[in-house]
Each structure stands twice: as C-alpha cells, then as structure tokens.
From TrEMBL:
Activity control, per UniProt: Allosterically activated by ADP and other diphosphonucleosides, and allosterically inhibited by phosphoenolpyruvate.
Pathway: Carbohydrate degradation; glycolysis; D-glyceraldehyde 3-phosphate and glycerone phosphate from D-glucose: step 3/4
Top-level EC class as recorded in UniProt: transferase
Protein name stated in the entry: ATP-dependent 6-phosphofructokinase
Localisation per UniProt entry: Cytoplasm
UniProt-annotated catalytic positions: 127
Length: 319
C-alpha cells in the first residue's frame, strides 16, 4: 500500500486531532503518502481531499474538534453515493482508509470496504458506547468537562441547600453519567440502562435530608429522561428547592485530556501499521492497556453495557 487517507466522521470528539496527527506522522515515517478527507463522507463524495504531511498536522494535538471537519451525509447511505466516494478515492490512488468516528461512521466504512476500499476504524465518540474497547477517544475529556461542571454546581447547591440536577450527554448509554456522577459524588445517577420512578427519587431525596444531608446532586443521562421535567416533579412533590443544569454540547469540546491524547495516538499508530499489513474490516480498540483488533461486525453490532460494578459502587458511596 502506497497511499492512504484519514477521515473523521459523525459527531466530533476531543482527541480526533491527536488521532489524525498520529496517522499522518506514522504514515510519513513509513514513506506512505497520506491524504485528509474534509467533512466526513460528504467530503469523500464531493472529492474534497488534500494531501497532508507532518507539518500540516502541527499545532493540533491540543485542540478539540477536528481540523479536517466532520459531517453527516445522507447521500453516503445510498449505494450510488458510496460508489461516487469510491471512484474519487480510486482516482487519487488511495488504497486504504483510517476512519475515526462512532458506530455510524464505522458502519459506513464497512459498506465502503464491500466496494474494494480497505479500512481500519478508530472509536471516536464521547459516549464510550462502542463494543470492543474499554474507552473511546473523547470520553475521558467529556467526563472531565462534566465533572468540572458538577464540582461547580456542588458549590452553589451546598450554599443554598438545593437539589441540583445535572443533565449530561448519553442518549442510549449511561457511561458519561455514571462515571462523572461517581467521580463527582452524586447522590443519585439516572441512566437509560436502569429504569427508575420519580416517586422513588423523591422519596430518596427526602430520606437523605432526614439523614442529615444538606443538599443533593442528581446526575441524569439525557436518555434517562429530561432533567428539566424531573426537576419540576421533584420540586412539586418534595418542596425542596431544585435547580437544573443541562450541560449540552459543552461536553463535546475542549482540549483533550492526557488520556485521550495518548489513546488517540496509540490507536492511530496501530491502525496505520495494520492497514499497511493489508488488514481491513477491523477497529482498533484498547483493552487492558493494550491495543487490540476488533472485527468490525462485532464493534458495530454488539452492545457495550455499562460496568455493573461501577453502578453498584456509585450506589454504595452515595449513602
Ligand atoms: P457517528 O459515527 O458519530 O455514530 P452517525 O451515526 O451520524 O455518527 O454516522 C456518520 C455518518 O456515517 C452518516 O452521516 C453516514 O454518512 C454514515 N453512516 C451511518 N450509518 C450508515 C449506514 N447504515 N450506512 C451507510 N452509511 C452510514
């Protein structure tokens, strides 16, 4: 293989730049030409790609987002769209791809491989919801952002004796809520994987006041329900002064943490090495402190569960 390309696709996450940088520099170290595709699969269809070298990826390791841009492309979901994309790659002589993105982007890459383009995927999403890897690129930074907000909200909740609800990202998965909630000392953590009733939450909050707690932090994953609605119910049923903060997209941005930069760099190096060995249809994951190859069908079809031990511990520590 003499020429590869790198693409970021779907939702952006901190650490994508560190991954692109590593892809480019490992490729250059192996005398491989490397191209950057702009704006995800939309750019692949529009033939929006540019050759990169070590200098083009300088000064990006510390930046959130992705300097290549990312996008969602409906056209890519059609066979005609993907054929256009493949024709553009082939016209440039690009034989292999490193695809950085979430499960949607990795699903798209698998379909591209069916048309003759080899690829190795990297799990890039703040949600940590991809099977086959302990952590996804971006998760650690997002959790630290959420934790920073929880710490600040705790100060004001404590000063006023309030119930503070903090809604964090996670439509289908509670990893951010569980991890930030545990680290932030939340009294209650609500995640989509664990059903709950608002009656129980209200009862729990009143009991904790009776036990001497002066204020409460409740972390709510967006997929568990609306924190705003729940806040209204709590306020009406318990009479406790309640405030709600919805963190939203702030969790997607910011300088990647040490962990995310290292993860991105390690996974990207392995991805390029594997691609150069002719491997395809895999994602590089990180398990037990090692890079591992994960069959792409497993990565995109198996559901990654939350860690039940973490959930149990958060419950014990919230007493
Ligand atoms: P993420 O990669 O963060 O999960 P999306 O699910 O939005 O984000 O996927 C990003 C892009 O990947 C989509 O806009 C589309 O171009 C492509 N994609 C997603 N799912 C499929 C699919 N089933 N078939 C083909 N392409 C897909």
């Amino acid at each position: 293989m003499k020429k590869i390309a790198v693409i970021t696709s779907g939702g952006d996450c901190p650490g994508m730049n560190a991954a692109i940088r590593a892809v480019v520099r490992v490729a250059m170290a192996n005398q491989i030409e490397v191209w950057g595709i702009k704006n995800g699969y939309a750019g692949m269809i529009a033939n929006d790609m540019t050759q990169l070298d070590s200098r083009s990826v300088g000064d990006i390791i510390h930046k959130g987002g992705t300097f290549l841009g990312t996008a969602r492309s409906e056209e890519f979901k059609t066979l005609t769209g993907r054929q256009k994309a493949v024709a553009n790659l082939q016209a440039h002589g690009i034989e292999g791809l490193v695809v950085i993105g979430g499960d949607g982007s990795l699903t798209g890459a698998k379909l591209l491989a069916e048309l003759g383009i080899k690829f190795v995927g990297l799990p890039g999403t703040i949600d940590n919801d991809i099977w086959g890897t302990d952590y996804t690129i971006g998760f650690d930074t997002a959790v630290n952002t959420a934790l920073d907000a929880i710490n600040k909200l705790r100060d004001t909740a404590s000063a006023h004796g309030r119930v503070m609800l903090v809604e964090v990202m996670g439509r289908a998965c509670g990893w951010i809520a569980l991890t930030a909630g545990l680290a932030g000392g939340a009294e209650i953590i609500l995640i989509p994987e664990q059903p709950f009733s608002s009656e129980n939450i209200c009862r729990q909050l009143l009991e904790s006041r009776a036990k001497g707690k002066q204020y409460s932090i409740v972390v709510v994953a967006e997929g568990a329900g609306s924190a705003i609605d729940l806040g209204k119910v709590i306020s009406a049923k318990t009479g406790l002064e309640t405030r709600v903060s919805v963190l939203g997209h702030i969790q997607r941005g910011g300088a990647p943490t040490v962990s995310d930069r290292l993860l991105a760099s390690r996974l990207a190096e392995r991805a390029v090495r594997d691609l150069l060995q002719g491997k395809s249809d895999i994602m590089i994951g990180y398990r037990n402190n090692q890079c591992v190859e994960v069959p792409i069908t497993d990565a995109i079809s198996k559901k990654k569960d939350i860690d039940p031990e973490l959930y149990r511990l958060s419950d014990v520590l919230s007493q």
